[in-house]
Predict the structure.
Amino acid sequence: MPRRVPRTVLDSLRTPRGFHGFLKTTAVCTLIAGLLSPLSQAVAAEQATGQTTAQVTAANDYCGGQCSDILPPGENGNATLAQILLNQAFGTQPDHAEDQLGPYANLATGSSGLTDAKINTFFNDASFGVASDQIASTEKPAGRTDVTIVRDKKAGIPHITGTTRYGTEFGAGYAAAEDRLWLMDVFRHVGRGQLTTFAGGAASNQGLEQEFWRNAPYREADLQAQIDSAVASAGARGQQALDDANAYLAGVNSYIDASDSGRYFPGEYVLTGHKDSITNAGTIDHFKITDLVALASVIGALFGSGGGGEVNNALSLLAAQSQYGVEQGTKVWESFRERNDPEATLTVHDGTSFPYAAKPATAQGQALPDAGSVTQEPLVYDRTGSAATTGAATASTQAAATALTSAKRGMSNALVVSGKYTASGHPVAVFGPQTGYFAPQLLMLQEIQGPGISARGASFAGLSMYVELGRGQDYSWSATTSGQDIIDTYAVELCEDDYHYLYHGTCTAMDEVEQKNAWTPTTADGTAAGSYTMRVWRTAYGPVEYRATVGGKKVAYTTLRSSYLHEVDSIIGFQMLNDPDYVKGPQDFESAVQHINYTFNWFYADSQHTAYYNSGDNPVRATGVDPDFPVWARAAYEWRNWNGATNTADYTPASAHPNSIDQDYYISWNNKQALDYASAPWGDGSVHRADLLEDRVKKLVAAGGVTRTSLVKAMADAALTDLRAEDVLPELLKVVGSSPVTDATAAAAVTKLQTWVTAGARRTETTAGSKTYANADAIRLLDAWWPLLVKAEFQPGLGTDLYDAISTNLPIDESPSAAHGPTGAHAGSSFQYGWWSYVDKDIRSVLGQSVQGPLAQTYCGGGSLSSCRDLLISTLKTAAGLTPAQVYPGDDQCSAGDQWCADSIVQRTLGGIKHGKISWQNRPTYQQVVEYTSHR
């Protein structure tokens, strides 16, 4: 099947069916001339406030010029209609729209010659303030005297300095709208399930709103109630957060009014029919406090909610038991599940145990479905027009699969080394979130200095009243998605009809929540008119996701996560991280992130200490409940002290969360956190992409004298390495080479693969910009061979049904050119989810090597070395016979057979500005390099 980059919002502008098809170049030029007549945003600000060359700096920067960061493609995510037309017609870029993309991309081929002096060739200087000769603009938003926004020449990053708390947050909101207004508007509509009505009915837009609204189907009253609850439960900090949010929104709305009257608002509002380019008729709706909850629900679902997928787990367990019998089938299933694999790479590696979500000795309350009885609960009803097309139906199917499968979230990595092992004696960290690649980017950079706030870094657009990932005066912090299990599935017993259920013995009506959407064609999205209704049935145990029978009894399976109805509770933790009077050391850092209820791994570094903490509201489950499977919705199996009205319960104490201070080093790439801390995602076994960091950082620490340069190089090398080739291919070649390879085709393939492994197993260009890989044939061979060898190795022993069921739980492969996985194609992030651990354990068993936590049986060739070898050689020869066009079939971005392009990273358009492709790297989108020289 051809791969496609998800096409959302304004992606149709990339093709001739966008405005190129109806607007000729001469017409574009004429129109642009007219559109340039209103004052531009920069000119309006300069005329209103005057330009100044005075240096605007913040005190108390203890990083000594050794803090750096990067966030492609660029800080400026807004573009007027004229700028969009110029970009589409001639490829020109608005100022600061992509000036961080080149440095980011260049690290792929430039890291080998890296030195500390050259780091900021590939990163920004993340020091506080702006030198006087580097000030590009200065403005006082809305004429306020209590806040100033200075932008630097290099990247156009807003440096917000306020003399009052209100003014500071007003400035943060104003700057956010300057840089990301359109994106903020898009995602508040995604969170409300209203994207198609706002931006157009493209099938991808339909899928996007369905994916998120299915699991967070909130009414306006629900959104407001979450704000009220968060404020009430957090005392003075809760009230401060509310005040900050209101000031932030006032800044956002002030910019909306200014840009509307000045006619420099984002051009997407014209292209989607919300504004008229000639008369300026139409409105841009002000933001309100509940929009922040809608935005938070999207970000939390993307990056901070682990677990789920219990129904799919049950189906694969039933398939295993059908194939092998109940006892052996359960053993086989558990061996593939790897929920506490002894060979898994750990972030806390000092042997400390943090038991959580373990398999109980005797399961209680389990509610497995009867074979063949499970049906997915419909979400979309009453389709008309373009909502009833095949493409729309496919988008709905994909959205449901993403929303309902076990947590295939993740991305982001961290490398942190204690000062004991560095050249300077100060800790060094290279870390950041891997949030995908978008235009504009989901995150934005900023510096905020004001009463009780002193920070610089990245924040999600629309939620940037605080820096969410970045640095304070003498410390930096970052996060990776942890994904521990905070989601459970309950089997609610039905009564009266399919829309009533038993709740604590009482027959209770389900709550029907609807969202009706309709759309018509626009310049941006020519999708024909259409409409549909999304309908979710809510229970106290969460939304209904499936229907089934259990022991012949009709049930509805619901999904309950601990952050449901608590999307904004984490704001207090971020407020604390920005407060220099609160965070003064690693213990304060851990205390702050304990207030974040989403599932993240948090990392910290200052001039003396490093730290790690795993956040999230981990529910205390009833004794005997197995979190991997559905349980009965009865009081005996609920979370301890659970309140169904507020979705609150007892949560595991902070000390029970994996945590550590001053370990020799920390690495994380969404791997297992600690001993006995059960993995919610499948695939945390003997081979994981975190091994690419673990092996490199461990060697650096053993040698000592770690520097920022050496740690960046370790990250960059891992970012170009094919995990399969480095950690699994050598074992496969051992089996193949256990006897002389006499077949010429196979022998030639083996030579190419071995040469690539010896060279470092990297997927990298021959020279910068060549768009041709070194060892290209070997890379193509492995890309073609992997799915063939996995199927041949495992399907005969597992049987088709079980093989397919486990593949639903864990994809076979996630190479850079793969179209499956949580990120889709052209998204950079790779090798997180795949069968590498299974192949590794199985092949090592065939070779007679020691395996801890082996699979329940040996699969390759039935355990026979010679039979396994024959199987591998046969599939390798098949792979060698495939043409480049067959291995890389092409898509709407690349022609068939173009290997480099198939791997390349595309900035997915969420607005009207498009950018060029860059060479593949597997690294954080926003990334910091830090080494503090002193402390307060």
User: Anything to note?
Assistant: Residues 461 and 806 are 37 Å apart (CA to CA). Residues 235-262 form the longest helix (28 residues). Residues 1-7, 10-57 have pLDDT under 50 and may be disordered.
